UniProtKB/TrEMBL annotation:
<keyword id="KW-0460">Magnesium</keyword>
<dbReference type="GO" id="GO:0046872">
    <property type="term" value="F:metal ion binding"/>
</dbReference>
<keyword id="KW-0489">Methyltransferase</keyword>
<dbReference type="GO" id="GO:0032259">
    <property type="term" value="P:methylation"/>
</dbReference>
<keyword id="KW-0479">Metal-binding</keyword>
<keyword id="KW-0808">Transferase</keyword>
<dbReference type="GO" id="GO:0008168">
    <property type="term" value="F:methyltransferase activity"/>
</dbReference>
<protein>
    <submittedName>
        <fullName>Probable S-adenosylmethionine-dependent methyltransferase At5g38780</fullName>
    </submittedName>
</protein>
<dbReference type="InterPro" id="IPR029063">
    <property type="entry name" value="SAM-dependent_MTases_sf"/>
</dbReference>
<dbReference type="InterPro" id="IPR005299">
    <property type="entry name" value="MeTrfase_7"/>
</dbReference>
<dbReference type="Pfam" id="PF03492">
    <property type="entry name" value="Methyltransf_7"/>
</dbReference>
<comment type="similarity">
    <text>Belongs to the methyltransferase superfamily. Type-7 methyltransferase family.</text>
</comment>
<dbReference type="InterPro" id="IPR042086">
    <property type="entry name" value="MeTrfase_capping"/>
</dbReference>
Length: 381
């Protein structure tokens, strides 16, 4: 690994992770910084970073073990953001984390010259717009930035090299849609829908099983990469175990509303109904109870803290246009690959019409989606 001397330089390395399926290439958010980009349409996700700030700072101050050094770079302190996208929400988080790390070192009695240099690894799928990310790096930062493309469900870094792992609004993505939801003969066949719904238990169970496998794979990879005593903070979009679908909604409700637009377009002959049947979104939005059970099964990490945050980002989508732009920035790649680019404008126009006809979706107080902040510590060997 080659490093340049200035803290403002960018070091570009290739990760050794292998994307197991081509579908993962489509998980990149809309690139650039234009009106339909993720940069311009991710304020919903940013809210979680702001509200998690004091908790992350407190956990680093109290529980981060700074005695252990990286096996590959003993004079550096290594941080990774898994699922960084184009950096708009990653940069504030990295500022929070790196400042807390420097304060932790300073409070331990180290003089400035003894505090290790901080390196931040920005990770996402290989098709992520790293150019926008690196051209947007904050000029005044106290870390060296490194590009790390690859699937975070598998190993990306050397053994015992990482001190702090972070991920926000990324672990809801599955490595694949559960196979049984696309099989016509399966009890979990998800016909005429693009995501699970609560009234289809078999579909829900299939999605949850895949989600558990993927979270466990993520944890196993980090267990090898992290030093003993290292911390991991994950911000995971979630839903409550119970909510009233007649008067309230969650992100899955929104996505299923978008799916109903695809069904309507198929009925008018824009594409076949079979085309809709064969399209399922690779997302799962966990409940706090489900995620806690998965995390507590780990033999490599202890669950230090789990908080349910009422994401203030939901107040940043005040109109049907803003809500449609938010989902388009996230989903356009997946939708275009399956249905073609010609239908995208019409799809989101229809989606906005349906939103306007359902006032509940325009009341942020009715959005019962939450964010889980989990802080985990790597067990000592």
């Amino acid at each position: 690994m080659e490093k340049m001397s200035s803290k403002k330089t960018k070091v570009d390395i290739m990760g050794n992770g292998v994307l197991p399926r081509r579908t993962l290439d489509l998980y990149a958010m809309n690139a650039g910084d234009g009106p339909r980009s993720y940069v311009q349409n991710s304020s919903y996700q940013r809210g979680a970073v702001d509200i998690a700030k004091p908790i992350i700072e407190e956990e680093i101050a109290r529980k981060l073990d700074i005695k252990h050094r990286s096996s590959t770079s003993p004079n550096g302190f290594w941080v990774a953001d898994f699922g960084c996208s184009t950096g708009h929400n990653s940069f504030p988080a990295m500022q929070i984390i790196t400042r807390a790390i420097y304060r932790k070192h300073a409070s331990s009695g180290l003089i400035t010259s003894q505090i290790p240099e901080v390196f931040v690894l920005f990770n996402d799928v290989i098709t992520n717009d790293f150019n926008t990310l690196f051209t947007s790096l904050p000029p005044r930062r106290r870390y060296t930035a490194i590009r790390l493309p690859g699937d975070f469900h598998s190993r990306l870094l050397p053994e015992s090299s990482l001190h702090f792992a972070y991920s926000s609004w990324a672990l809801q993505w599955l490595t694949q849609v559960p196979k049984e939801v696309a099989e016509r003969d399966s009890p979990a066949w998800n016909n005429r829908a693009i995501l699970y719904t609560r009234d289809r238990k078999e579909v829900c169970d299939a999605y949850l099983n895949q989600y558990a496998k993927d979270i466990e794979a993520f944890m196993e990879a980090r267990a090898v990469e992290m030093v003993s005593g290292g911390l991991m903070a994950i911000l995971v979009p979630a839903v409550p175990a119970f909510w009233n679908p007649e008067t309230e909604y969650t992100i899955p409700s929104d996505l299923n509303l978008l799916g109903s637009c695809l069904v309507d377009m198929a009925k008018t002959g824009k594409f076949s109904e079979a085309k809709v049947d064969s399209f399922n979104l690779p997302f799962y939005f966990t409940t706090p109870e489900q995620l806690k059970a998965i995390l507590e099964r780990s033999h490599s990490f202890t669950l230090e803290r789990l908080e349910i945050l009422n994401n203030p980002g939901k107040y940043t989508l005040p109109s049907v246009n803003a809500r449609a732009a938010f989902y388009r920035a996230v989903l356009e790649g997946l939708l275009t690959d399956h249905f073609g680019s010609d239908i995208i404008d019409e799809l989101f126009t229809l989606y906005m019409e349906k939103l306007a006809a359902l006032p509940v979706f325009l009341n942020p107080d009715k959005d019962k989606s939450t964010v889980i902040l989990a802080v985990l510590k790597r067990r000592s060997e």
